[in-house]
Amino acid sequence: MKELQHLNKYFLKYKYQLILGVIITAIARVFLLFTPRLVREIFTVVENWNNGIITDKSVFKAELLENILLIVGASIVAGVLTFLMRQTIINVSRYVEYDLKNEVYQQYQKLSLNFYKKNRTGDLMNRITEDVSRVRMYAGPAIMYSINTITLFVIALIYMFNQAPKLTLYTILPLPILSVAIYKLSKEIHKRSTIVQEYLSKLSSSTQETFSGISIIKAYGLELQTSANFNQLSEESRQKQLDLVRIRSFFFPMMILLIGISNLMVIYIGGKQYIDGEIESLGTIAEFIIYVNMLTWPVATVGWVTSIVQQAEASQKRINEFLKKKPEISNTVTEPTTIKGDITFKNVYFTYDDTNIQALNDVSFTLNKGKTLAIIGKTGSGKSTILDLIGRLYDIDKGEILIDGKPIKSINLTSLRNAIGYVPQDAFLFSDTIKNNITFGKEDASDEDVITAAKQAQVHKNIVKFNKGYDTVLGERGITLSGGQKQRVSIARAIVKDPKILLFDDSLSAVDTETEEKILHHLNTVSKDKTTIIVSHRVSSVKNADHIIVLDNGKIIQDGNHNSLINKVGYYKELYEKQLSEAY
Ligand SMILES: Nc1ncnc2c1ncn2[C@@H]1O[C@H](COP(=O)(O)OP(=O)(O)OP(=O)(O)O)[C@@H](O)[C@H]1O
């Protein structure tokens, strides 16, 4: 229960609804328990009529009717209260589920990129869906059924002991056996349903992967093989489902058996006691039969609730593991920082934790506000890493990164990221309209801003050709853009944000040189007062930059401007000549 204490703050938040729920539950049970006593009354009235104690037929009828009406009345009140019990306690569990989901999601957002590298997406999704649902079962049904069982049991036992103490003992004897049996069964059901769940998620991720890679599968003619893999997985999954169904089938027969045994005991022992004169009325036997049936389900829930609590505890433990994680990159500055855009790297060293790859080795450069730096170099030389470090997606090992002359850690993280317009290597677009994809970083951008940015990114003409223009939906339910179109929408997104710092990570690789030329021309105007970094493999993209650095294996091996570098023997000159000859 230690892990579940995390939920106490939510119980405190919804304390009034919870207390109301508990009171309603208790009162509902009291009303429910009127029925057995009233049934006994009816039996007594009938016995009295048979024994001649009541002789007046109208009195007999009136007493019968009174008890029947009382049963109907008590049942209606109990029914209404049971409805209200669910409306309070189950509602609270839904509120708790909602709050907990939000808490986990907020925490996910705070955690740094490294966290996402170390944990699989499926696992992250599971904690926010499966685990939170299991915890909800504790916050709602488990609490509700526990209160239900306790109140019903206490009140019923008091009534029963008052009526016939010996019969009570015999009646409740099989109930603990029922509880333990249900507990064991629930545990086994849970074990098997977890396996079924695992198979279902394997099936869905494998299907999802197949659909995502359908063009490759078709191109390589692998349909039969993927179908065979699917069938095998599906067959295994079916087997596990059948195992689960088998164990579940025991549940109700077992309950019926144990209720049957209890009923028989009441009839047998009660009957003997009646014959021996230990109990006065046959009505008591009827009353006890109703108690047994009323108590069976709550007693069965003791076993069920125990297993729910155990599952919830395990799930909350997994959730807590993530909630307790401290973000590696945190914002320590509360005041917003105004950013101008000067960037300085001083002897920066950086190694990726997970792979131990040293991506940057003693990198230094200075880039003043409004200037353009280009980074060129072989793949894996550390170009993207420099951009990630400017956005403080990682903290460096050694050296210093200064923004406007201040250490990057002393700058408000939100202000820093708000000041950056980043165009990643793989343009990521959401399943949303083109317009919303462009205004992603600046939701209040006007239609005019969006169109201007799209024109500057050379994608406006493509967009207006679609039937719905800027309202065209992209992604799974919409159209698929070409690689170059995606890159350009992504560039428009950065431009519309009007940031102080623009970072382009090989963002023109999928556009032809003519379009590239036009985009670069517009970028000259757009980035006039902005600090710009362009990462590229193409000399044509970087030649107009104020400063160019050439990276190799995390080290700067050359730097200067285009004119100086093409006159120096080295990587840049070689690349320039090679790309020049390819162009002709
Ligand atoms: N998130 C990461 N975790 C671990 N290692 C990484 C990560 N990102 C990059 N690396 C490694 O760091 C080195 C530098 O990578 P980086 O992406 O900065 O290179 P790049 O010059 O941008 O390459 P490319 O031109 O192919 O995009 C590479 O060896 C790469 O494998």
Automatic annotation (TrEMBL):
Keyword rRNA-binding on entry: no
Localization per Swiss-Prot or TrEMBL: Cell membrane
Residue stretches spanning the membrane: 16-34, 68-85, 142-161, 167-185, 250-269, 289-309
Domain of life, per lineage: Bacteria
SMART domains: AAA
Domain ABC transporter: 343-578
An annotated Gene Ontology molecular function: ATP hydrolysis activity
Keywords on record: ATP-binding, Cell membrane, Membrane, Nucleotide-binding, Transmembrane, Transmembrane helix, Transport
Residue ranges of domain ABC transmembrane type-1 in the record: 19-311
Membrane topology: Multi-pass membrane protein
GO cellular component term, pick one: plasma membrane
Protein name stated in the entry: ABC transporter ATP-binding protein
